[in-house]
Specification:
Length: about 1000
Amino acid sequence: MTADQEAATGGGLGQQAAAMARAGVWTEEQLVADVDAAPRGPRVGAFFDFDGTVIDGYSLAAFARHHLRSLQVTPAAMGELLLNGLRGVTTEEDFERFTVAGMRAWAGRSEDELVELGERLFVQGIAGSLFPEAWRLVTAHLQAGHTVVLASSATRFQVEPAARALGVQHVLVSPVEIVDGVCTGRPGGPLLWRKGKAAAVRSFAEEHGIDLLQSYAYSNGDEDVPFLRTVGRPRALNPGRGLTAAARHYSWPVARFRRRGTTSPVDLARTVAGVGGLFGGFATGLAVGALSGSRREAVDLGITLAGELGSALAGVRLDVQGAEHLATRPAVFLFNHQSQLDVLVLAKLLRGGFTGVAKKELARTPGFGLAFRLADVAFVDRGDPAQARKALEPAVERLREGISLVIAPEGTRSATPTLGAFKKGAFHVAMQAGVPIVPIVLRNTGELMWRGAATIHPGVVQVRVLPPIPTDGWSAEDLGERVAEVHDSYLRTLANWSGRSEQPVVSEEPTADAGPPVPAPPLDWGSAPEMNPLETAMWRAEAADPRLRANVALLELLDPAPDWERLRAAHEWASRMVPRMRQRVVEPALGIGTPRWATVAGLDLDAHVEHVRLEAPGSMRQLLDVVGEFVSAPLDRGRPLWQAMLVEGLSDGRAGYVVKTHHSTTDGLGAVQLMSRLHSRTAEHDPARPEPPVPTPDDDVSRTALLTEQLVGTARSAPLALLRRGVGALGSAARPWDAVASALDSARSATRTLAPPGPGSTLLTPRGGGWHLEVLEVPLADLKAGAKAAGGSLNDGFLAAMVGGFRRYHERHGAPLGTLAVGIPISLRAQDAPEGGNRFTGARFPAPLDEADPAVRIRTIREFVLSVRGDGGSSVVNDLLAPTLSWLPAPVIGAVSGQLTSANDVQISNVPGVTHPVYIAGSRIERMYPFGPLPGCAAMITLLSHEGQCCIGVNVDAAAVTDPAGLVADLRAGLDEVVALGR
């Protein structure tokens, strides 16, 4: 049963989770409901990124502003930080450089000073950017007893204050070096970025006994994809474009919170109108009420009109539960203070008949100060408890006169949505006056107007008025206990606002049937949402010139022939493991811009998987002819770019299985990585194999909208790109000799790759575009030993053998032994680069055919390959052409590509394969032969190692190589002479 099927039969919660997963975009309610349905207890972790995920923006900005205002950082240091940011942060080295530049501002400051600074900046600025939705999500995890962790690339001085405010006990942060209590301004260990954060999470989980499969991770940036992939329940919160694409690839839920720092002109106008309505209504009420001769009636009418007009003009509405309790008068009305908006909300809610308590600074505030004085508000000095108690004495008298009191028991606005501790003053007043306490619980005023904000966002304020609490019988001795009881009632109300029932937290081992099933993730392969410039060139070149078609294929020999239905079903499973198999290419309008991958609504397996049988006698030659016709046929450009075919009827009972795809999907190494991960190590079906859900299809992608989006994006990014180039130029100007050396290296590399080639083989000049396939084999150990004897690698020995084979071919046909133009791919794939896609460039080796000594050929090739790999400029074609390739029409790209690749007589490459037995649909794979395309050259030869054998696929242009069987014999002889060097 697949994960989707299990979810569909797992009860109401499972069905809800499956539906949410298919929907792709989740609401806050869905996120919290998913947490409620998950296993409970500390073995489930909840790992939250900080910047951009828990808070809107970057905590480092608050520190930078402080340093600038206090002149504690030099302009040069701030300039270095800015320049590093402008250069862009794309690698671990970039991030380390950026982080170190930021840490230097702390050098020489004590650890205690930095801790105090972090606390102060959190309260003054960072807390105001906290996402309330994230706070509630953290709270849901804490209530479920989960182990909650803030995992951030920031430092503890930035993260720990927020963790304490949120009630989170664990933080994983980038360490700062502290020596003798003083910061050195350097990192104190590995930074938590990309793989560093993922490694820290795995280590923490092992140390604390956390089940990562059942755990959660939340982040907003694509640099955190490795971090998100460490858990079974990743969630993309407020994702940028890169993470949105990754979430689509992995079928991760996406949720977006309301931005905290954005202000629209409409919001600004509405705020002005709301404030105007507040004061205008109050003034109007005073004027009209004054006719009655009662100041109290005038104030009450002013408050009523202020609340009604101000809220209406500001777009603020109230959703009140328990409104009947507001009739309890006189009373001490308590409210949890979240926002300046609370004044407007309370005016609309209580409609007069009350006074309040405010900090003494407000007495001098224009507008509010006068209004508060007219309403007999008590002004208290929060720094002087004795004065504060004295200031509340008139409030007791007002209560005895029948005027209610409104007061925030926390004493001030909370820095976060977390409820603060209650002070006893309001409770003393109620007890002395003998009036009840009425708790008013405000849920979200801080979301409509957050701390430090100058504008009001429209929306509905959720209010719950709890039943009155009599103070009869209270005493000073038990007042602390009474305060705690009221505080707990606020906590319970806020925690269970959505109607979620309280569940006891049990420390238990998560089980497979506890909560909704965890969907298995697809493979981390081919996740880029768009083609890169090289892929774009290959995709469009064949549209202009069919001879440049870029199909790549892998032929496997299977023993025995597999069950057809099982093999067919394996492709459906593979298409869920590899979402690229369910994606087609969408070209922007006019055929310019970057092609995008879009997931199709359904996969027609019959259009992608074929089944044929050879006629007797079922020879290898027959198989290669059938496979050659299959792999050379163009792929349907409107469907996902792959096809597979099972060929039965080989005389020895084996079968051929071939998969072809387009080169724009992956290079050779990426293809082998994929096949090795899809193949099984056993013939038996694995019931525990991962079962990812079917990828969510993309909505219809408009070609015009796609082009418009890319044009707008390019226009927006151009100024920053120019600025970054300028920054790079400034950096180069500081090291002029390095810049000159780099330019010379690039020029040499460009000459190798782009310069008009010398005369190649006249024998191989004709081109017809027809494909003919051949295969060769040689023991891997033998070829390695021969190459090593001459001081070369396996690749050097293979190249030398192939050149030797073409030397013999030319000799037999009486052709001049001049130069053979050999194209060699140079991999640009970094060790931590994502799998799939294309990351290579090319170099052209002028191989002398008159060299008869294979050892000399190996040493010559070795020297050339090392020089190309080591000059640092082997990607010059990509560097020079990449910025413009996607904006060139297909005919131009076809002409450029044809010029570059058709100048090669032959292209030769080798790809590492698998070293252990592998199976597909129960059949063992005995051989794997790779076949590359013929991009205008005479031959493409590719080696793939498989279980100790070098499997060599030869694809030749039938017009250029008129004697393919003879060429195969010559290439075999070339291999033999290299192997002989090692004996």
